[in-house]
Amino acid sequence: MHLHHLRTHRSDENLAREGQLAWKLASVATDPVELDDDVVDMVVNRVIDNAAVAAASIARGPVVSARSQALAHPVSIGGDGATVFGADAARRTSPEWAAWANGVAVRELDFHDTFLAAEYSHPGDNIPPIVAVAQHLAANRGLTGRDVVRGIATGYEIQIDLVKAISLHKHKIDHVAHLGPSAAAGIGTLLGLDQETIFQAIGQALHTTTATRQSRKGEISTWKAHAPAFAGKMAVEAVDRAMRGQTSPVPIYEGEDGVIAWLLDGPDASYEVPLPEVGEAKRAILDSYTKEHSAEYQAQAWIDLARKLHDEYPLILDASHIESITLHTSHHTHYVIGSGANDPQKYDPDASRETLDHSIPYIFTVALQDGSWDHAESYSPERAHRPDTVELWKKVTTVEDEEWTRRYHSNDIAEKAFGGRVVIKLADGGEIVDEIAVADAHPLGARPFAREQYVQKFRTLAEWALTPDEIERFLDVAQRLPELGPDELGGLTFNVAPGALVGVEIPEGLF
């Protein structure tokens, strides 16, 4: 890896293309270096993972809405169109709308992969737009599964490299501002576009995907699932414009009125962005990790610790035995999903699901009492209103611990941690103290996810909505991804079983 020094430049400095971050990102995208076998395997795992959580969410309101929007649009004339999760594979739509619908389905339950560093991210959000474009142009350009894998590896590499260096949330900018450029670059790799075209697409994608973090603050709305899908849709459109010769604001990051100067750390800011050398394998996907539980990633380890405590200390299942529970954790966990956010909604039984999956006091309470976590039942209104849960929930708070903050931001993967230490004060004066660094499913956790676990996650989450034959068909296609021919890429989707969506109301809009 090399570090690209990034800072703002006055207009009269005339920063050359070669010195601009967007140009360097485009260079990564155009590098023809071969992929390592473990990277290829992990790409397949994440394609399965995305489909699993999409199947679980296929009847939820935001997903139904996005799917109905996508299917209201015909296939564009430049290709064969792309598939939409939940619809018959023969019913295609234009790629940007397929990216939109599938992006919402993947993101709705907050249940797919993550990478956390200076910023946080869900790099699996790169997959829907890249696959949509691949399906659309497979026949025209002879695209194969290997091309798809290469495009996805680029998307992961660039988003994760940006996340390692540039904090967005510190300035209340939503994390999808790193996704627009990475998805555009991944599409560029998929299509074998030249560096200038990818450079322009990256700039346009960044310019159109910066927004505030209010989508993840206070009363969290359904837009939380739409935000990354919108970034993916914008990336597809940015690539289309760039391929037609249209240009972007330059320099997009470094300009005196650009992203760094006015949205991030200001005119005097500088960053060191790690990027692969030319000819160096793209391996960033291996630094990311998926979720065993449907909740914000910083909650994953806490759920596992709560399940452990549930089994070891039956007395704490009675809320009257507990005086207080304090979670000593990182700055980010405390201020984003903890009591440090100062969001009363995080303690409100009537809060939206989107809010509760960003409330570690709620999540820890339910996991502690139940000894388990379910993507649907754990968020149900009945579960949130249970009197003993509400009683205990109010006793759970978070505090920042400098050591856990340091480990959260460590660039040493072996040291990086997303958990903390819990102190449970009992009514009789006693204490229970325990800690956890990473989730059980983390690569360094007690039960790391491998292909077997990804496949089982898909089977478990899809069994209510897909026929057994469709489950096995999809798993066969997905696991053969690196060898798929152009005529097989359309199989990277699933159709729901007859009757699975009976009673689901299709909303009406403009289209």
| CATH T-level topology of the largest domain | 2-methylcitrate dehydratase PrpD
The dominant shape is globular
The amount of helix comes to: 40-55%
CATH superfamily of the largest domain: 2-methylcitrate dehydratase PrpD
Query: What gap, in angstroms, lies between the N and C termini?
Result: 47 Å
The helix/strand series, from N terminus to C terminus, equals EHHHHEEHHHHHHEHEHHHHHEHEEHH
Q: Compute the number of strand runs.
A: 8
User: What's the CATH architecture name of the largest domain?
Assistant: Orthogonal Bundle
Alpha carbon gyration radius: 22 Å
Parts with pLDDT < 50 across at least 5 consecutive residues: none
Percentage beta strand: 5-15%
Just give the CATH class of the largest domain.
Mainly Alpha
Total helix count?
Answer: 19
What order do the strands of the largest sheet run in, or round the barrel if closed? 6-5-7-8
Question: How many strands, what sense, and barrel or not for the largest sheet?
Answer: 4 strands, mixed
Counted up, domains total 2
GO molecular function: 2-methylcitrate dehydratase activity
Domain MmgE/PrpD N-terminal: 20-271
EC number: 4.2.1.79
InterPro entries: MmgE/PrpD_sf, MmgE/PrpD_sf_1, MmgE/PrpD_sf_2, MmgE_PrpD, MmgE_PrpD_C, MmgE_PrpD_N
Keyphrases for this structure?
2 domains, alpha+beta, MmgE/PrpD_sf_2, EC 4.2.1.79, 511 residues, four-stranded mixed beta sheet, 60s Ribosomal Protein L30, Chain: A, 19 helices, two-stranded antiparallel sheet, MmgE/PrpD_sf, 8% strand, lyase, 2-methylcitrate dehydratase PrpD, 43% helix
